[in-house]
Amino acid sequence: MSRRVTPTLLASALLLTGLVGCSTDAPRKETAPVAVEPPPAATPTPRVPAGSAPESAFGVGVRQLKLNRDGRALPVTLWYPAAGKAGGAARRSAAAADGRFPVVMFSHGLGGRPEDYAALLTRWAAAGFVVAAPAFPHTSKGGDGNVLDVLNQPADVSYALTQVLALDGKAGDGLRGRLATDRVAAAGHSAGGVTTIGLFTAGRDERLDAGVVFAGTAVGVGTAFAGATAPQLFVHGELDEVVDYAAGKAAYDKVPWPKALLSLPKGDHGRALLGDAASLRVVSDTSVEFLRWSLYGDPAAKKRIAKDATRNDIATFDDHL
Predict the structure, then answer these.
(1) DSSP run (H or E) holding 203
(2) Helices (H), 14-61
């Protein structure tokens, strides 16, 4: 895949301006036609072998990793399972817990920062995942807001993933020997959702075993999902004021692999990730069980996904896992 935006992509990329302010503001909606396809004749089998996820919660550590890809500064926040008592705030540079943990690459929305999503991402880390969240050079808070640069972000994530996985073999690093380098997912919100879809389409990273897309759309990156089977969980508010629900549903309908859509009838563009406690609980519990299944291969977790998704009638769940 090209590491820069190519001229042939610029026309479609212009449509991404509908994502401006996706983290905090409320600009005009992005719309897309709904394309409903019949399910495939046979459900592909995920490639992660069966196993079991940790049963107990971990403490959480947090640290920073300074990266740079061809002049593109990519500071990465790492949340990871930490030794010691579970609960409480993430501890800076805490010792990692014993074990090998799958890796989840998380991409923020336009005008956002990794720490905006700490309430969700620390829950993933406490459940037994190393979460790596880059701050993108143009679309993070304080950047120039160049929305076209979203098309460069899948390559940024792939680069950051390579550097994160290398920590497993780096002498003296706190995560040495702690990463399950063959069990990796990508996730992202809004413009980060576009980035995540791009990692399974035009910028397919074959190291990825699963994806989680929050309030995302395929505009600019396409829906030509490619490569090995990678289960996908989509999460979208039906009252989304930035990325129209129909646009997210259209991308979801194109996924050829095991997939599920968590729909929040009263959900907007980001409250379930950034503030609403009841919705955040449903979203976090559902996504944790999805990741336990798709990255640890835990069959018991798979059985819990739908139950968590439909708790207290906060969301509906289209389940094709």
Answers:
(1) none
(2) none
125 touches 81 (CB < 8 A): yes
CB contact set of 134 (below 8 Å; sequence gap of 6+): 67, 74, 75, 76, 105, 107, 114, 156, 157, 160
The structural domains of the chain, with segments of one domain joined by +, span 7-13+55-320
Architecture of the CATH domain 7-13+55-320? 3-Layer(aba) Sandwich (3.40)
Reported pTM: 0.90
Residues in Cβ contact with 307 at an 8 Å cutoff, skipping those fewer than 6 apart: none
- Beta strand 59-69 pairing with 91-92: parallel
The amino acid that residue 64 corresponds to is Q
- Gyration radius of the chain's alpha carbons: 18
CB atoms within 10 A of CB 47: 14
**Based on the number of CB atoms within 10 Å of its own CB, is 206 exposed (0-12), middle (13-18) or buried (19 or more)?**
exposed
**Mean pLDDT to the nearest integer, 209-214:** 98
Give the pLDDT confidence of 176-205 residue by residue, as tens digits.
Answer: 999 999 999 999 999 999 999 999 999 999
